[in-house]
Every structure is written in C-alpha cells, then in structure tokens.
Amino acid sequence: MPFEEIFTELHEQFQQERQEMALALWKNFLQITMKRILQQRRLSLYNGAHGYEEEVIKKKLQQFSGGSINLSKEDNGMAILTLNNPKLMNAFSGTMMVELQERVTELENWKDGKGLIIHGAGNTFCSGSDLNVVKEISNSQDGMNMCMFMQNTLTRLMRLPLISVALVQGKAFGGGAELTTACDFRLMTPGSEIRFVHKHMGLVPGWGGGARLVRIVGSGAALQLLGAAARVEPERARSLGLSEATLLSSEETRALAEARAWLSQYTEGPAAVIRAVKKVVAAGRELPLEAALRTEKDIFGTVWGGPANLQALVRRPKHK
Ligand SMILES: CCCC(=O)SCCNC(=O)CCNC(=O)[C@H](O)C(C)(C)COP(=O)(O)OP(=O)(O)OC[C@H]1O[C@@H](n2cnc3c(N)ncnc32)[C@H](O)[C@@H]1OP(=O)(O)O
C-alpha cells in the first residue's frame, strides 16, 4: 500500500478514535453534572413547583455585595467555614448567601470530609441578614424567594455527611442564630449569646431556624426563646440542650483550637464510617421510623465487610 494511503487511513482512524474519546468524555461529564443536579434537588426543599425562582433570587442577591464565606478543607477531614464580614458583625450580604450555597455544594462533593466547624471572623458569630439587604428586598416575592433559597442551603448543610459544629463566639443573632441550628452541635465561648431577635424586627425565623429549634429544645422552650426574643447565654443554652459545652477561652484562636479538639473526638477514624454514622443519625432525625430503618439498612450495607470492618475483625479489639 502506498505511503499516502496508509497515512490517510491512520489519520482517519486517529480522528475517529479522538471523536469517540471526546464523546465518551462529554457523556461522562453530562452524567456527573446530572447526578450532582439531581443530588442537590433531592437534598433541597423547594423547586419551581413551589413557585421558587432560584435564578431570579440569585441574580438579585448578587447585587448586594460585601464580605465572603471562606472554606478551608484540611487533610484530617475537618473543614473550617468562616463567615467573614466583620465590619457588620458578619451579617449576611446577598453575595454571602450565594457563596454559602457554593461552599455547601463544595462540601457535598468532598468525599474525604468528616467534620465541619462554622465560625465568624473577628471573634463574633453572625448578626443575621444584612439589614441593608433586608430593606432592599422587603417585597413579598423577593422575601419568599430569599427564604426558600436560605432554607434550601441550610437544609443541605444540615444533611451533609459531616459532623458539624457552630462555634458561637460573641453574638449569634437573627439569621445567625438560625444558622447555628443547622449544625449538629453548638459550642459557646464565655460571654457569647444566641438570640432569636426576629420578634423585635417584626419577623419570625425564615431560614428554617424555628422548625429546627423546636426539635432541639422542644416546643415550650422554643416558644419562650422566640416569644421573648430572649438572650441565651452559655449556661442557659447548656441547660436547654441548645449548646453542648462552654469552652474555656473566648479568645478567637484558642476557642477554635478547643472546638477542633472537641470535634475530633467524633471524627477520629475512617471517613467512610464517620460519614455513615452521620447519615444514620440524619435519617433517624428526619424520616418516619420505617423509612429511617430502611435507610439505616442501606447505609449499613456500605460499611459491612468494608475495609474498616475487615481490619477490626482481624484486630478483634476489646472494648474496655
Ligand atoms: C430571616 C433572617 C432575619 C434576620 O436575620 S434580621 C437581622 C437581625 N439582626 C439584627 O437585627 C442585628 C442588629 N444589630 C445589632 O443588634 C447590633 O449591631 C449587635 C449585633 C448587637 C452588635 O452590637 P455592637 O457590638 O454594639 O456593634 P454595632 O451595633 O456598633 O455594630 C457594628 C456595625 O455593624 C452593623 N451591623 C450589625 N449587625 C448588622 C446587620 N444585621 N445588618 C447590617 N449592619 C449590621 C452596625 O450597624 C454597625 O455599623 P456602623 O458602625 O454603625 O456602620
């Protein structure tokens, strides 16, 4: 066969293989993207069927900039999420609400994660939504969309397969108090306070904090805290079961170190097992019993005969 023909044949073959490879990559990309979108939809509460217009509210929120939400993921499987708008006591600007959603997506896709600490910059937690933004979106349509946007994000945060802690230094007010309830645990520093100030703003919680608070402290205590917009200091929070522990230090760096040490007692061990623990508890917390039992069975199937299980069977530890 003449050289030119061989060359043409090889060239065509190469082109075809390249096209096939590109198609396979594209298909793979589409599959992964679809899977992520479906996962986000499954974990979210609201979609178009509820009159929720995500793109509309995101565009609106993007108009109100300021501050940031920073995420640092560590090799030990612990992540630190920082609410960073200290000039306004870490109040949520519009762009911070959108960034929180992005960071939650990042955490959903972090397969090695085990624990999460949420804290505020400048030694205070968060004073809720930025009142300048609240004023600008005080009409009903924007308010409902913002409410559904934040409920979707905080519900996804609550359902992350990570054991989460809100480290409350300084003040957690309004939406900031609501955010703490989307975490599995709250730790408070001396002198800090959680306060659902909504009543004084002519509001009720809208980021899901009311419903979650009832589940954490019971309906009577929740009614007292919301009805009086009561200051909840570390001691009262402990006795209500709203806080797990009062840390020794109120100094920013030391408090974060204490929170890490506290959380590490639950995140020690293989990621697959820790994540399974959180998933079992999340199912038990949210689902009716039969559905929770079936979910537990499915999660059990992911660890049974898995590497950590097989290694433990070889070691046969005594649980003294
Ligand atoms: C569904 C969500 C509902 C909501 O979250 S509504 C918002 C609820 N939050 C609030 O109403 C908090 C209002 N702020 C306060 O009560 C006090 O600022 C707070 C947090 C006790 C702190 O008091 P101080 O330590 O004395 O500090 P300060 O008042 O001088 O504040 C420093 C600067 O931060 C500002 N700031 C605090 N919280 C804010 C907010 N949420 N939105 C907008 N700006 C806010 C405050 O205006 C002040 O700014 P500037 O120095 O006067 O320019």
UniProtKB/TrEMBL annotation:
Decarboxylates ethylmalonyl-CoA, a potentially toxic metabolite, to form butyryl-CoA, suggesting it might be involved in metabolite proofreading. Acts preferentially on (S)-ethylmalonyl-CoA but also has some activity on the (R)-isomer. Also has methylmalonyl-CoA decarboxylase activity at lower level. This is Ethylmalonyl-CoA decarboxylase. The gene is ECHDC1. One of its GO terms (molecular function) is methyl/ethyl malonyl-CoA decarboxylase activity. Its EC number is 4.1.1.94. InterPro entries: ClpP/crotonase-like_dom_sf, Enoyl-CoA_hyd/isom_CS, Enoyl-CoA_hydra/iso. It is found in: Cytoplasm, Cytosol. It holds the Pfam family ECH_1. It catalyses: (2S)-ethylmalonyl-CoA + H(+) = butanoyl-CoA + CO2; (2R)-ethylmalonyl-CoA + H(+) = butanoyl-CoA + CO2; (S)-methylmalonyl-CoA + H(+) = propanoyl-CoA + CO2. CDD domains: crotonase-like. SUPFAM superfamilies: ClpP/crotonase (SSF52096). Its main location: cytoplasm. One of its GO terms (cellular component) is cytosol. Keywords: Cytoplasm, Lyase. The keyword NAD does not apply. Belongs to the enoyl-CoA hydratase/isomerase family. It comes from the Eukaryota. GO terms for biological process: fatty acid beta-oxidation. The keyword DNA-binding does not apply. PROSITE patterns: ENOYL_COA_HYDRATASE.
